[in-house]
Amino acid sequence: MRLHIPRVATALALATTLLAASACGGDSGGPGGSSDDAGGKVTLRFTWWGSDTRTKLTQQVIDAYQKDHPNVTIKGEFGEWSGYWDKLATTVAANDAPDIIQMDEKYLREYADRGALLDLKKAQGLDTGKFEPDTLSAGEFDGGLYGLNAGINSFAVVANPAVFKAAGVAIPDDTTWTWDDFARISAEISTKLNGKGWGTGALGTNEAGLNLWARQNGESLWTKDGKLGVSPEKTTDFFKYVLKLRDMKAIPSAEFTSQDMNAALDQSAMATGKLAMSFIWSNQLLAFSQASGQQLKLLRIPSTDGKAADNGSYYKGSMFWSISSRSKHQKEAADFVNYLANNPAAGNVLLAERGVPPNTEIRTAVTPKLKPADAASAKFIQDIGKELGDPSPAPPVGGGQVEKIIQRYTTEVLFGRQAPDAAAKAFLDEVNGELK
Amino acid sequence: MSALGELGSLRGKKTAGQKRDNLAGYLFLAPWLLGLFLITIGPMLASLYLSFTDYNLIQAPKWIGLDNFTRMLSDERLHNSLRVTFTYVFVSVPLQLAIALLLAVVLDRGVRGMAFYRSVFYLPSLLGSSVAIAILWRQVFGTTGLLNQLLDLVGIHGKGWISDPSTALGTLVVLNVWTFGSPMVIFLAGLRQIPSMYYEAASVDGAGTLRRFFSITLPLLTPIIFFNLVLQIIHAFQAFTQAFVVSGGSGGPSDSTMFFTLYLYDRGFGNFDMGYASAMAWFLLVIIGIFTAANFLLSKYWVFYDD
Fold first, then answer.
1. In the CATH scheme, what is the code of domain A155-313+398-434?
2. Is pLDDT of A73 > 60?
3. Do the chains contact at B268 and A1, CB–CB below 8 Å?
4. A89 contacts on B by Cβ (under 8 Å)
5. Whole-prediction pTM
6. Which pLDDT score is estimated for B12?
7. Which residues of chain B are within 8 Å of residue A255 when distances are taken between CB atoms?
8. The predicted structure's pLDDT at residue A141
9. Per CATH, which fold does A42-151+319-385 belong to?
10. Cβ separation of B292 and A18 shorter than 8 Å?
């Protein structure tokens, strides 16, 4: 009775293990077009990313729609931003894409250029008559409409008045503040909180920060013809500023920041009251306010010269509604998107959680009903309206990766592993390499 | 006459009963065979084809010959991912096997309640590559995690172990070492098979504990060590879940936990670069193949088969 693991058995065991190493694949092609399920039961799949707040509101709208359309069942598939795109890519590759997709500007061209999205101009029953032309054009290119604007937002500073109060620092005037003011105030808060909190989250965990920095200096992250528009010099300055924030202790430690980059919104440092300020998209004010249990406040992005009109801000399509080009129920999907965009009942539930409604009638109808946080973000969007710069060009194909790339180089800089100029050059090289 | 020859001569004169037996045999094999061809061989061949193409997941693949493979030569992030993976394999596997062997020897001494300890030590192996444990790891090694709370008790102010590029990979090594249970159980079984008369004879000759371990236990255990070594190396090369979950899918901070498999996934599903990702998968297969072949070649010099 000896335990024997002879060579043959070892070889066999490893052969089977080896095989698992390379099994990866995909499927291409598939049925398109809409089938007519007149009177029949139709199941639509609808995917979105977002916080609990968004998921609850969206589910409410789905329930209301299903009540009116008993033959349609809508299955929601939702998750956090990180992970959402991997999952979407996988389902699209497997020819199993959800019918209705919440899309981001970063990936819109990526999917549309490759024929994965339906041209909404050709979709039956989708009315865009009440949309401002500007808000429509964000989802439009090559003569087609591939994403319907689901809300307008803007990059902003979010402030937690409770943390300001705890530090005994007054909330500054955001119409005149400069980047130097921002750094100084943040550092002051960190000092006063003495380890219990910090002045601000790091700039550079989101490429929008770099874009605004570039726009304040006469450049722009992307050009209209789909290239990188920011120079190595300005990018270096940007990373130098990030480093300055670190050295002044305006931001938490590098470790803390790198951990916070991957945290879900509800567990992030801003939502848990560890930061007095951070950078967010204006429509996230509601989610952050609910997660933190505080009435947070939006502030304008600081500028170089102390003039808010020069801070490079722009209206962005916070997200878009897209329909899979391979959906078997395009008609029904278009009808649901139409409901999301144009029906007052949906508007009254969704309010401004995804950004200020681009449908002007809905916007007027819901404005009085907005929750305080949404009302504040809607007012913010309105207030900055007269200070805006040119629209910001959408990222080209391959540009979707820029967020992950800038996070990585910001981490390199914060840990002192790369100097700002080296990081700037490597960052730009890598982004260029991704553009197709 | 070789066994194959005998089989050949038997063929053709099968009885009805034998044929029925064979059919039954294949029927029982069918689920596994179907799985092998549909879930393993099929996708593997597809990925071999894709590795020579530019394939963005949505449009049809475009043949580009060896471009994907030449691109790997100049891909800095790929080189970094190789460094990370090799570090992980060569640090965690020896450590893990050493601990497994040590505990197996201790448990083999007839500790009371051995079945209990065996199960307890084996548990991490069952859980080790699960998402739940990886999430737990994030909590344990985070800035305000369990480890730092313990360190605080003794007055040391710990750092964010998983969010610092210099220690993040270390936490994953610890996680892998922690799953020493499965090699340990195999070691235990191997130890049980060493005839006690060898030890008795050695004791009579005056050999001490250490001497008995190095002159009897270790040599007779070499086939088992070899088996464990080969399997654990392959296993470690393929590690993915832990790094993916602990780093939030980013391989971060600063690519310090960017395993080869994670980078492969990132290229394929994050960057719509499935042709390149497929080429990487085949490259990994070749790397693992080379290491395994080397293991087998070297085994001649140190593995002792007592038969």
1. 3.40.190.10
2. yes
3. no
4. 57, 269-270, 272
5. 0.82
6. 56
7. 143, 159-160, 163-164, 253
8. 82
9. D-Maltodextrin-Binding Protein; domain 2 (3.40.190)
10. yes
